[in-house]
Amino acid sequence: MRATLRPVLRAFTVLAACVLASTAQARLEPMADNELSDVAGQGFINLTTDSNAGIDYTRINLGLKVETQMNMNKLQLGLYDRAGEAAGTSDILINNFALGSVNDSTGAVNPFMINDPFVELAYSGNKIVGLRVGFAESKGTLSGDIQTLSGSVPVHIKGTADPIYNAASGGTRFLLGLAGVYRSSIMEADATLVNSAGNLDPVRATYSGMPNGSSLSCSSGCLGGLTNALLSLFTSSNCAVTGVTTCFPLSQFQSLPIGNAAIADNSATQAIEGAARGFFISMQTQAVSWKDLDSNTFKEALAGAYLNIPKFKDANGNLVAPITINFDQAFGGIPRVDTCFGAATKGC
Amino acid sequence: MRSLLPLLALLSVASARAEMVALDDGEMSKVQGAGFGFVLENILLDAGQSTITINDITNGSGQNVPISVKEFYLGAAGSNKGANLNPVTTGRLAHPFALNLAKGEDLRSLRDDGQWVQTTPNNVAVLELTFPERLSTGGNACIAGFAGAGNNCSSRAAEKIDMGVRFDFQVAAGRTDVINIDIGELAMDGSYLRLWGDSARAQMVGEARLNIFAKTLEITSCASGTLNCTSAAELAARTIYLTNSYANVALGYGKTQPLLLDVTSNGQFVLELPNPLAGASTAAERNSRASEFYANAPRTNVVVDNLNFGGARSSAGVAPTGGYNFGSNEIRGLSFNYLKATSHDL
């Protein structure tokens, strides 16, 4: 349209624009109070409070959606002498910590996603007894060489019994067969932070595994209904079930999924679809119960530095462990995803 | 020192009285940017009798949570948390604060290994605000008695600062959270903010480095003289002590990952550190950029040599005894391959 304007018409257009501009030179007028009151502020920060069991909480919420792929050489919290723990160890020590991953062949990143990070203080009277930094929603891959870990890291192991058969002795294979477990049977077990003897160890743990007294269960493909009853007779003891190892060094789990990667995010929504709610790192001088953002109940974190990797909801709305691995991964670990461009996969 | 040269040049102009002659392009390209250095001499800020109230931060129900900011002070080190305030002179002529206009290829940043490297792109005019420098040799302890923070600060002990401020959050009816912060022997050497225009992006971009070195940082959660906050023991029990702490916060690497700040049409802000490999079309180019980025891009470190909740210091600057000792805590070598943060209303 503009290209077809003849010079005279073009000049007229410029003149008209000038005239219109001169009429637009209005004086700035102050707004009245009622006009100002109609203006909504940009509220990307708010403060919320809670109380539970004599502890008052103040949480500073930040309205932020963050996508990141980051690396750090070391994350170390709580390097101090602690009764019952080895000298020189930390509550949390993760080397080559990373969030998200990279794709060297394209140069693109697979970002870790965070919605509404927060900082929260716990008060006993007017004394601060705890501090936590967390994310209302988060999803992506967390990587690192975990040296010691304190906190809650639920793991669910599910897969065919084939790797169990491969790791089992002849006698154990016989017992599994007697219980009606085939190589193709789907077996399940819950694992958590333990020590090398299979005892629960939420402080400075170096292993994840089936705690003493827990047992494998069969969810499908086994012979008859007696299988689980028979399996319950073989409980994990000292990190083994009838000779099959049930505890695994944390250092071999080098990349952990946070949230449900099977559910794609919809970038048009503020929420992160498939996110885990309530990932946090905290420090407290006593056992402090922090509000779980999924269940709205309070869950206890022991004194010291504490990492909480929360459960998330599956497609059916059931809360499931954030780390779900098969028995091959349990025995062999989870290799690290690439978090560095170029030749290195970590430590960049 | 370089920053003083333009000032000297200006002074000499008055006596020269020569006819002004236009510079040609070749001469122009050799001209270092203008700038000036300054020293904060005999600074003392004492707002102990003043209160600023911040409104319109809301709670979950949308009700106002007033935040009172009070008891701000800034003075010479050794103030005993502001009780004994004296003026401080920070920066000096050899190592001043500076506001410069310089070419990107002439600016340097100090890498963690002590090497000076160029981080800003060539052929851009950079507006730079800098704190006193860190040095390759002959520096002073960034934190007295703590070698871990480095001995390459230009600021001497007498140039370090004590400062503090108190925030009262009226979080609920009958409940006010107090956060009273006192920082002892603060230095911020090597901090800078650099801004320039990026013609390809058609926006202003930048890079920033915020270095904070503090011998002590104490956070008290009650107001002195109030309930359970009267005796020294009560105050100490409600204090979080950080001893020998420093942070090197790096945002942006001008060559391939400048810091981008933007505002969306609905008034929200966007902070972005773009992928340094963006636009690289071949594997060789991607590898080359990655190597250069990892070798030279400044990293973020946050180190607290001792963190203690409660307890008491036996003397100034010494880690407390008693309370809960969290020992040493650190984040080292943090860098972003990508970061994008977009705000939204809660």
Describe it.
The complex is a heterodimer of chains A (348) and B (346). Helix content of chain A is 14%, strand content 41%. Chain A is built from 6 helices and 24 strands. In chain A, strands 1, 2, 3, 4, 7, 8, 9, 17, 18 and 21 form a 10-stranded mixed β-sheet that branches. In chain A, strands 10, 11, 12, 13, 16 and 24 form a 6-stranded mixed β-sheet that branches. The longest helix of chain A is centred in the N-terminal third of the chain and has 17 residues, at 7-23. Chain B has 346 residues and is mainly β. Chain B is 11% helix and 44% strand. In chain B, strand 13 (192-198) and strand 14 (203-220) form a beta hairpin. The radius of gyration of chain B is 23 Å and the shape is globular. Chains A and B meet through strand 1, strand 2, strand 3, strand 7 and strand 8 of A and strand 4, strand 11, strand 12, helix 4 and strand 19 of B. Strand 3 (64-79) of chain A pairs antiparallel with strand 19 of chain B, so a sheet runs across the interface.
